[in-house]
């Protein structure tokens, strides 16, 4: 997934220039790709040129000069704003294979109008098993080093492994290239078939369909580009809805390539969706689909947010909280009628602390006023929801009794949080001229509408920099409106000093994509921190203060790790 930072230049002018007045010199900062840019201001008789210089270290200096007479019509003639110089992008080719009937071609294409560079590093399986690898310098027919490759604007480089050895060698590769350099691998086999797979980012959550029916076999290759062993949870949901789970452990810089049926026997002769996930660290993955005619690459989908397979639908209880299995108690206020000696009485149930309920009873039975309450009611069962009240409050005019009833919901109006259904049960009031009665009829209830719940997390960090890909997730039951970061403070690091570089995201700002963040949704955004002293690769922490229109202000402490994910 590509993300582009756009630099915006704002000139602040204290007062408009009056015609005939010479313009004043101004301090101007421009983050531009080019070394020198000019801005011209003319009042019709004289012109002031503002020169901007950007050196290789991104230090900006400026100068002004005025010439007269100047025939340029009055006005401001700004320079164009090229893109901000970008950091190198790290990507992974999870499968590189040569020999044993296989051959790989790597293609590097510079899609920009500027010169670019790229370096490729490879690791091959050792044969010891368990995914262990060692550094690898594969042979390419072009006979060139894969370090510090230069690509002119619009240039393309092809690197072919020989594919002639009878011995199979496989592993993975990592590319560090200028932004705009696209990389992909082409796999060919003498048995027939060809597949093309782009280099991918390092992530922690990937979904991939599988098909092991009618002679098809889905395979995959996974690489661990971090310096620590990774345990990856692998979940499967078959086309019929059956769910199962396995796991993979890949050593540091390790690599594994498997056919699904051999590694995960439960997927044999089946179709469905697989989900690869690790809470910490990262990995890269590609899939291949073999069929009787040959093979092709299989599609995989990077994901963010919580796991999908086996997780409850976050909207299920929002749409209808009366469904079995939804959190109890769902009630705010429930009202229904009972009949005692042919006289109607009204019963209202309200929740109290500790998960219990009060039941207020009011009406007239046999000429006697009934007014009082049961306390300490509890839920006796949940399908249908049944309540049991066996205690009478001291404020009641009746001394003892019981109330037992069940509610069977039929409809729910999410717009107002009202549920409707049928109530059945019995009531006993040990009060003179009152006695017992039955409960049978309709009820209505007000159900608390769910609230959003927001969490912030780091998705990835560019190697050796303070550039963070962040995410805000809504794990609640309602949309969060205008998720806003109001401040970024408390930046700490051991042996280094960092400052936040706001760019366009200057607090307070609404998180991009989070103006209406749905339940279960995640929105990514970038935060850039600069090391003013010490190493930019030093782990650091900071505090985000955030809020939404329907979420009170809260703080989250974010800490980067020494092992980071690279997007």
Radius of gyration: 33 Å
Record the strand order, biggest sheet.
23-24-25-26-27-28-29-30
Strand content: over 45%
Low-confidence stretches: 1-37, 79-85, 562-567
The number of distinct helices, counting runs of at least 4 residues, comes to: 2
Overall shape:
flat
| Number of structural domains | 4
What class would the helix/strand composition place it in?
mainly beta
Beta strand count? 40
Mean pLDDT, to the nearest integer, reads 80
Chain-wise SSE layout:
Layout: E1 36-42, E2 47-54, E3 60-67, E4 75-77, E5 89-98, E6 102-110, E7 116-125, E8 133-136, E9 149-151, E10 156-160, E11 169-177, E12 181-189, E13 194-198, E14 205-211, E15 217-223, E16 230-238, E17 243-250, E18 255-259, H1 260-263, E19 271-277, E20 284-291, E21 294-298, E22 301-302, H2 316-319, E23 333-340, E24 343-351, E25 357-365, E26 368-382, E27 385-389, E28 401-413, E29 418-429, E30 435-446, E31 454-461, E32 466-474, E33 480-481, E34 484-493, E35 497-501, E36 509-510, E37 516-517, E38 522-533, E39 540-548, E40 551-559
Antiparallel strand pairs: 1-2, 1-4, 2-3, 5-11, 6-10, 6-12, 7-8, 7-9, 7-11, 12-13, 14-19, 14-22, 15-18, 15-20, 16-17, 16-19, 20-21, 23-24, 23-30, 24-25, 25-26, 26-27, 27-28, 28-29, 29-30, 31-32, 32-38, 33-37, 34-36, 34-39, 35-38, 39-40
């Amino acid at each position: 997934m590509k993300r582009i930072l756009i630099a915006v230049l704002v000139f602040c002018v204290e007062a408009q220039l009056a015609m005939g007045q010479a313009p004043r010199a101004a301090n101007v900062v421009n983050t531009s790709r080019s070394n020198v840019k000019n801005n011209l201001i003319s009042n019709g008789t004289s012109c002031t040129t503002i020169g901007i210089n950007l050196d290789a270290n991104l230090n900006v200096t400026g100068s002004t000069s005025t010439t007269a007479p100047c025939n340029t019509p009055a006005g401001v003639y700004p320079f164009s704003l090229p893109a901000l110089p970008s950091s190198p992008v790290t990507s992974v080719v999870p499968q590189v294979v040569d020999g044993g009937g296989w051959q790989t071609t790597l293609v590097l294409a510079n899609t920009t109008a500027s010169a670019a560079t790229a370096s490729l590093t490879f690791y091959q399986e050792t044969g010891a098993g368990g995914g262990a690898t060692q550094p690898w310098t594969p042979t390419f027919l072009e006979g060139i080093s894969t370090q510090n490759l230069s690509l002119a604007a619009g240039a393309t480089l092809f690197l072919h492994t020989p594919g002639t050895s009878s011995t199979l060698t496989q592993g993975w590769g990592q590319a560090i290239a200028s932004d705009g350099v696209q990389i992909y691998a082409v796999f060919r086999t003498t048995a027939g078939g060809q597949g093309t797979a782009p280099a991918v980012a390092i992530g922690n959550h990937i979904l991939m369909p599988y098909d092991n029916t009618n002679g098809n076999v889905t395979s995959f290759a996974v690489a661990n580009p971090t310096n620590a062993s990774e345990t990856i949870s692998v979940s499967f949901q078959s086309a019929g809805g059956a769910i199962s789970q396995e796991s993979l452990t890949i050593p540091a810089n390790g690599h594994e390539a498997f056919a699904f049926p051999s590694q995960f026997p439960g997927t044999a002769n089946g179709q469905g969706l697989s989900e690869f996930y690790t809470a910490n660290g990262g990995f890269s993955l590609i899939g291949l689909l073999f069929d009787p005619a040959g093979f092709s690459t299989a599609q995989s989908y990077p994901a963010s947010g919580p796991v999908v397979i086996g997780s409850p639908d976050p909207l299920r209880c929002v749409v209808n909280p009366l469904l079995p299995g939804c959190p109890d108690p769902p009630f705010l206020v429930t009202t229904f009628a009972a009949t005692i000696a042919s006289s109607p009485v009204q019963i209202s149930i309200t929740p109290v602390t500790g998960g219990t309920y009060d039941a207020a009873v009011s009406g007239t039975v046999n000429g006697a006023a009934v007014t009082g309450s049961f306390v300490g009611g509890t839920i006796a069962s949940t399908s249908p929801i049944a309540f049991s009240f066996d205690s009478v409050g001291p404020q009641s005019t009746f001394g003892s009794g019981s109330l037992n009833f069940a509610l069977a919901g039929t409809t729910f109006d999410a717009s107002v949080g009202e549920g409707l259904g049928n109530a059945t049960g019995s009531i006993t009031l040990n009060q003179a001229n009152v006695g017992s009665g039955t409960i049978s009829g309709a009820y209505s209830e007000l159900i608390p509408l769910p609230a959003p719940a927001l969490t912030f997390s780091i998705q990835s960090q560019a190697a050796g920099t303070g550039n963070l890909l962040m995410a805000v997730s809504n794990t609640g039951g309602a949309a969060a409106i205008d998720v806003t970061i109001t401040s970024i403070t408390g930046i700490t690091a051991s042996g280094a000093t960092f400052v936040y570089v706001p760019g366009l995201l200057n607090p307070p700002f609404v998180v991009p994509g989070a103006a209406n963040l749905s339940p279960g949704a995640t929105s990514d955004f970038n935060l850039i921190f600069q090391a003013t002293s010490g190493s930019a690769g030093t782990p650091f922490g900071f505090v985000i203060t955030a809020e939404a229109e329907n979420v009170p202000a809260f703080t989250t402490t974010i800490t980067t790790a020494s092992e980071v994910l690279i997007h």
